Amino acid sequence: MASVAEQLAANINFSAFSKATELKKRIWFTLGALVIYRLGTYIPLPGIDPFVLDEVFRQHSSGVLGMFDMFTGGALGRMTIFALNIMPYISASIIMQLMTSVSPTLDALKKEGEAGRKKINQYTRMGTVLLALAQSYGIAVGIEGMTSSAGSAVMDPGLFFRLQVVITLTGGTIFLMWLGEQITARGIGNGISLIIFAGIVANLPSALVRTLELGRTGALSTILIVAILLIVIITVTVLVFFERAQRRLVVQYPKRQVGNKMFGGDSSHLPLKLNSAGVIPPIFASSLLLLPLTVASFSAQGGPEWLQPITQYLAHGQPLYIAFYVALIVFFTFFYTAVVFNPVDTADNLKKYGGFIPGIRPGKNTAEYINYVLTRITVLGAAYVAAVCVLPEILISQYAIPFYFGGTSLMIVVNVTMDTVAQIHSHMLAHQYEGLIKKAKLKGRRG
């Protein structure tokens, strides 16, 4: 069976793609949905002066606003109906995963199968709405306080303005949540991830143009620009290598006799990814570190006195900032890995189906061994994520390079691209299997 799969994979080409009608429909649906999303990122909120907003935003683009604007594909900087993007849904999903790991009720609900998963998804949607309401109200209040030399960013501030901002932004987030679910069900790839991916990729050309413009004006030397491009290429290569890296534990299944026939005795692998936490650690670490700087920059006097030295020491490129950034990435890598992978449950499932790791007793010993191996490879994973994120962070802080060339954005682009290509490959492989089955049936009838 493995040789047949390898042969089919080798024979997948453009002609096979052209015959995969279902796959083409899914790809066109995905592209159409992403086009609708991108159009929405250019529809502005009512009652806002875009020129004042643009001037104010450029002053604070080095804080949390700049990073979140990258995730929203520029929608936050333009303050459009999709300014919140899908971030409330991601936050609600993470909170629900954390609660599932600490709440026995939710953990039991998770183990109920499809019915339990639907209930957890419903709770996640409810949490998304609550977070979107809170965040949209905060954005409305924040916009009312934005002023520049040209005046206020809001033409007619007040309760009605706040109400329409809350309704519009919350509705935009709910629509994107629904759109992401439709892409997952009827398109190709993970819809939520593709929405963030589309926002980052759509602004990569403009980020490249801004970088080249810095070179034209003399702010960046030609050698430095070439070095940046080389670093981006090397970073992408490293990301592809490490995101595909995994430790495979051999799992053996015992032989069993049914009548006069012997079944079982097969072996398989339990794959443990080097980076099980994905892009969550750098996102959380950046948010926590950039929060004091953003709060201080929005304050007219630079914030409270105790906040000013903190913002100075935690500025981009400062040794304390880099040290905290690395420490938080390592912490969140271990924490989130523990959330998404439970060695005890894995060991129990292996024992239930008769599987065992050679040389390790089933049950508690297997769980301890899996935890031991997972801890060791997570150390390497945390070091890899920290290294990938810190170097671009230094370049961003020292040379005003756009966030789109940062490690977090490149990790998202690489991960989503690899997952989507893998799904396309699986669809094409399944299509070729169906073709072989039909040919075999026709030959059998003729024979």
Give me the number of helical elements. Answer: 18
Q: How many beta-strand elements?
A: 6
Terminal CA distance reads 24 Å
How big is the Rg?
A: 25 Å
- Strand content range: 5-15%
- The H-and-E topology, N to C, reads as HHHHHHHHHEEHHHEEEEHHHHHH
Principal-axes geometry comes out as globular
Walk me through what this model shows.
The chain has 447 residues and is mainly alpha-helical. The chain is built from 18 helices and six strands. Strands 1-2 form a two-stranded antiparallel sheet. Helix 9 (114-144) runs antiparallel to helix 10 (159-186), helix 11 (191-217) packs across helix 18 (407-446) and helix 12 runs antiparallel to helix 17 (364-399). The longest helix is centred in the last third of the chain and has 40 residues, at 407-446. Mean pLDDT is 79; it is low at 1-12 and 299-303.
